[in-house]
Specification:
Elements lengths: L2 E7 L7 H14 L4 E7 L11 H4 L3 E2 L5 E2 L2 H8 L9 E3 H14 L9 H19 L4 E6 L9 H14 L4 E8 L2 E2 L4 E2 L2 H12 L6 E6 L5 H11 L6 E5 L7 H7 L2 H9 L9 H12 L3 E9 L9 H13 L2 E9 H7 L2 H4 L4 E4 L8 H13 L4 E4 L1 H14 L6 E2 L9 E5 L14 E9 L4 H6 L3 E8 L1 E3 L4 H5 L3 E7 L4 E7 L5 E4 L14 H11 L3
Parallel strand pairs: 1-6, 1-7, 2-5, 2-6, 7-10, 10-11, 12-13, 12-14, 14-15, 15-23, 16-17
Antiparallel strand pairs: 3-4, 8-9, 17-20, 18-19, 18-21, 21-22, 22-23
Helix pairs in contact: 1-3, 1-9, 4-5, 5-6, 12-19, 13-15, 15-16
The protein binds glutamine.
Length: about 525
């Protein structure tokens, strides 16, 4: 039977519960245990797919095509867990399912209520993952902050679940903030006491308190938290701010968090070691041998979370090349206003990520033209590939005002157009071309050299595609269609001849990159950028 770790958060949001959960997963895996992770999101959307990145940050896509919370990205980057649509549970999903059952008559004669019907649905959704993914440990992160109205049914569900599972089978970890008040020159434990108090009111008693702090907590501070929050002294662990999120598993292990979890859950496992992680990930981060500046040209650049996986994958590419990465975030609308040189003349590589809608498109096209003409390594992803095609069509094929029909329905040259099956689609939720699809790479192309294999599978999230009507004519110049989906003959990868590194793909390689195993495209891109004079 699987054992459960429930992770809640208190005091404020953005405490890094996702990274803490992923790091615990990493440590347990290194001890020979099989883990999976679940994120419970209290919002009423069925999934984050219809939310604006400014609202929610990036939408992370799994192999099975689920549009999920970005914390699942952390889980997959830190661990080997294979996550599916079931690993992200939302209030929307739970209610959707309960209401469908009610309409079918499954609860005939009963009043359908939050307790027990909603809470049972949550518990069953959690247990289903443990069963189907056959793991030793399930880490369940509850989104939001304790005290929110929205997350109450989830907290009640995990309270019940822990009781049902019994001793040795479930623990609660509460992540809180212990602020340092500069003017007083001291740290404050009161917010943590209040937050644990709120948890206790709903019947949850934390087994471990993970305190997010600027500096390591003194023994006195930890003892005080233990006393006031009614936990063991050694169960108060400080999670100090770090430069790189990849240090967190290492620090947790050093602070004995693994031993604590092992003891509380009575786990039978190896001692485990993070030596490889230390050598392959932390060492290159701490002691880089060179430096490289990459521009990311997008329209959500003011929000760190909007391109989360892109930034992480770039950092993995830098780690693999033992380089320090500097990301220059460029708003494509600023390029439209002020010209491109101002932003891109000094960078060693340009990446245009995915996106939706017309705003900022012309700035992205200008950035791509600049990278193409000045032989700066260029990497286009999803929308980034589509606008690279538009740029090429306009400026090298003479197709005046060529465009994607997403931005101009009546363009004379619709070089990017709606996927056939999308034409009848009206509903917006989970209706894109989503998840893993095959791609065959042409031999002797740059893409083939990067991947070192012919058959690849990558994750998708798009409605538009390259319009094959223009393939022959566009191939006559320097454009190479180096990756094709064999089942449907869809263009998946394009590249340019006579350019140091110009590759763009319809899929999202950033979702499959890991710190200790950089995605080949990101590794290759950073390597090309480092070779720039
Ligand atoms: N808007 C484009 C499409 O739907 C690109 C999507 C993306 O970049 N994820 O095809």
């Amino acid at each position: 039977m699987a054992k459960y770790i429930f992770v809640t958060g208190g005091v404020v949001s953005s405490l890094g519960k996702g990274i803490a959960s992923a790091s615990i997963g990493k440590i347990l895996e290194s001890k020979g245990l099989k883990v999976t992770l679940i994120k419970c999101d209290p919002y009423i959307n069925v999934d984050p797919g219809t939310m604006n990145p400014f609202q929610h940050g990036e939408v992370y896509v799994t192999d099975d095509g689920a549009e999920t919370d970005l914390d699942l990205g952390h889980y997959e980057r830190f661990t080997n867990a294979k996550l599916t649509k079931d690993n992200n549970i939302t209030t929307g999903k739970i209610y959707y399912s309960v209401i469908a059952k009610e309409r079918k008559g499954d609860y005939l004669g009963k009043t359908v209520q939050i307790i027990p019907h909603i809470t049972n649905e949550i518990k069953n959704s959690i247990k289903k993952v443990a069963l189907s993914q056959k793991v030793d440990v399930v880490i369940v992160e509850i989104g939001g902050t304790v005290g929110d109205i929205e997350s109450l049914p989830f907290l009640e569900a995990i309270r019940q679940l822990k009781l049902e599972l019994g001793k040795d089978y479930a623990i609660n970890i509460h992540v809180t903030l212990v602020p340092f008040i500069k003017t007083a020159g001291e740290i404050k434990t009161k917010p943590t006491q209040h937050s644990v108090g709120t948890l206790r009111e709903i019947g949850i008693i934390p087994d471990i308190i993970l305190c997010r702090t600027e500096k390591a907590l003194s023994k006195e501070a930890r003892d005080k938290i233990a006393l006031f929050c009614n936990v063991d002294k050694e169960a108060v662990v400080s999670a100090v701010d770090v430069k790189s999120i990849y240090e967190v598993p290492f620090n947790f292990k050093q602070d004995g968090l693994d031993k604590l979890v092992e003891r509380l859950l009575n786990l039978k496992c190896e001692e485990g070691s993070l030596a490889c992680w230390q050598e392959e990930v932390l060492k290159p981060i701490k002691h880089p041998q060179k430096e490289v500046e990459i521009a990311v040209v997008g329209k959500y650049i003011t929000l760190q979370d909007a391109y989360k996986s892109i930034y992480e994958a770039l950092s993995h590419g830098a780690i693999a090349n033992k380089a320090k990465l500097i990301i220059k975030k460029v708003d494509s609308e600023d390029i439209e206003k002020n010209g491109v040189e101002k932003y891109l003349s000094k960078v060693k590589g340009v990446l245009v990520p995915g996106g939706f809608g017309l705003r900022g498109i012309e700035g992205k096209i200008a950035a791509i033209r600049f990278a193409r003409e000045n032989k700066i390594p260029f990497f286009g992803i999803c929308l980034g590939m589509q606008v690279a095609v538009v740029e090429y069509a306009r400026n090298l094929c003479g197709f005046k005002n060529a465009n994607s029909t997403e931005f101009n329905k009546s363009t004379k040259y619709p070089v990017i157009s709606l996927l056939e099956e999308q034409k009848a689609v009206q509903a917006k939720g989970a209706t894109m071309r989503l998840g893993a699809y095959d791609c065959k790479l042409k031999k002797n192309t740059a893409a083939h050299k990067v991947y070192k294999k012919e058959k690849i599978s990558e994750r998708h999230r798009h409605r538009y595609e390259f319009n094959n009507k223009y393939k022959e004519i566009m191939e006559k110049k320097d454009l190479v269609f180096s990756g094709i989906n064999p089942q449907r003959n869809l263009v998946e990868v394009i590249e340019l001849k006579n350019h140091p590194w110009f590759i763009a793909c319809q899929f999202h390689p950033e979702f499959k990159s890991k710190p200790d195993c950089a995605h080949p495209l990101f590794k290759g891109f950073i390597s090309a950028a480092l070779s720039q004079k």
